[in-house]
Amino acid sequence: MTDSLRFACTGCGKCCTGHHVPLTLDEARHWAADAGQVVVLIEAFVTDGPGMPLEQREHVMRRSHPVRCGAGEVRAAVTFAAFNPGRCRNLDDNDLCTIYDRRPLVCRIYPVEINPHIPLRPASKDCPPQAWQQGPELIHGTQLLDTGLQALVHASRQADRNDIAAKVRICQALGMTTSALKGNGFTAYLPDMGAFAAALAQLPEDGGAAWTLHVEDQALGASLQEYGLHITREPPLYYAFIGF
Predict the structure, then answer these.
(1) Distance (Å, rounded) from C-alpha 63 to C-alpha 60?
(2) Which end of the chain has less Cβ packing within 10 Å, N or C?
(3) CA–CA distance from 98 to each of 9, 26, 93, 193 (Å)?
């Protein structure tokens, strides 16, 4: 990081290739209506226990929701994301976005980070070097200077908080109730999009489903069981475990 960071998009299209783009609930509805695939990423933590980064407590608490797990409770954080293992389906032959005027919030915000605890590092982005050598000053110190981007970042964080209870209910209705421990990995689901779209259209009630934590490390699993949590190490059949 430097004291000052400039940025101007070069239109290379690299940020639109090989990235799963987080979506708000409304954006997920549009993505499903456009015949796109959504990937569901889930992580959970114990309040003031394993998986809770204390320095991030306020942020992670506000974007998570309590769920029953064994004889205990965890807080689940759910991300609905556009599934883009290759080129985004909305890029044309010239690497231009065909839904530019209604592109997701995260696309509008890029390359700025949504998580307030993650600094913007050019080396972690796909943009070519010249993108960081031109354009207006974007960040000075830790301050984001663009007021329009500030508003979009706030809107994205607020949507995370507003949507989380509904996202959890959708996961429960579709049987996506195994989570990874925050900081240890994610569980990833590719739901049937017909069922997913139906759940988005008419949000299900909270049925109080029981959740499970997928933890492959035996010692970590044993420590979580002390909280009365239900743990599995079985190879997943309906989801992928993405460990860190």
Answers:
(1) 5
(2) C
(3) 17, 19, 10, 22
Q: Mark the ranges of the chain whose per-residue pLDDT is less than 70.
A: 1-2
Whether 111 and 15 have beta carbons less than 8 Å apart is answered as yes
Range of the domain at 152: 4-243
Q: Give start and end residues of each alpha helix (H) in the chain.
A: 25-33, 57-62, 105-109, 147-173, 193-201, 218-225
Residue 7 contacts residue 135 (beta carbons within 8 Å)? yes
pLDDT of residue 4: 86
The tokens describing 242, both together, are: 């993405």
**For residue 163, what are its two tokens?**
């949507």
| Token pair for 110 | 């890029």
Residue whose token pair is 């990833």: 188
With tokens 């064994």, the residue in question is 70
How many structural domains is the chain composed of? Answer: 1
State both tokens at 171. Answer: 């996961």
Pull the structure tokens for residue 59: 């942020």
